[in-house]
Amino acid sequence: MTMTEKFKILGQYIKDMSSETPDVETFLFVKDNISKYQLGIDITSKAIKNKMIEIHTTFKFQDKENNKKTSHFEIIYATIIKVDDDVKEKKELEKIILCDVQNKIYPHLEKCFLNLLHNSGYDGINFDKKVDFENLYNQKFN
User: Fold this and answer.
1) Chain Cα centroid distance, residue 47
2) Whole-angstrom distance between the N-terminal and C-terminal Cα of the chain?
3) Distance separating alpha carbons of residues 136 and 50, to the nearest angstrom
4) Which of 29, 43, 53, 124 to pair with 12, CA 20 to 30 A apart?
5) Which residues are paired to 76 by β-bridges?
6) Model pTM score
7) What CA–CA distance (Å, rounded) separates 41 from 105?
8) Predicted confidence band at 1 (pLDDT cuts at 50, 70, 90)?
9) Are 30 and 120 in contact (CB under 8 A)?
């Protein structure tokens, strides 16, 4: 049984994107250590009007080990959705924003972010596992 989607994506775009590697030494160091970098995800949203919502999904790929030499990669991806009129519950809305929309945009967002990393000189990078937004959502709310 397929659930009908309770929202429509009106538009999506890269709002902000950055890649910072300050110097050659850092580049060489990061190239050797980037496998230890971790992907952080943050999702925020704000209501616009007429059941429209702007969602920002931020991916940060960073060194969790506080090395002096570090590169910084970040993308803020904006998605504008219109929510169906019969979505009344806050909980249902949260699930749409944090799970359903994310699952839909993820393949494109992941490709954009990997392109950023590859174009920044770190071509060996891939994310082994797809982000499980369902799971993140359940951790947050249960």
Assistant:
1) 19
2) 25
3) 28
4) 124
5) 16, 58
6) 0.90
7) 14
8) very low
9) no
| Domain 7-141 classification at class level | alpha beta
Asked whether residue 80 carries a pLDDT value surpassing 90, the answer given is yes
Q: What is the 3-state secondary structure (H, E, C) of the chain?
A: CCCCCCEEEEEEEEEEEEEECCCHHHHHHHHHHHHHCEEEEEEEEEECCCCEEEEEEEEEEECCCCCCCCCEEEEEEEEEEEECCCCCCHHHHHHHHHHHHHHHHHHHHHHHHHHHHHHCCCCCCCCCCCCCHHHHHHHHHC
62-76 pLDDT per residue, tens: 998 888 999 999 999
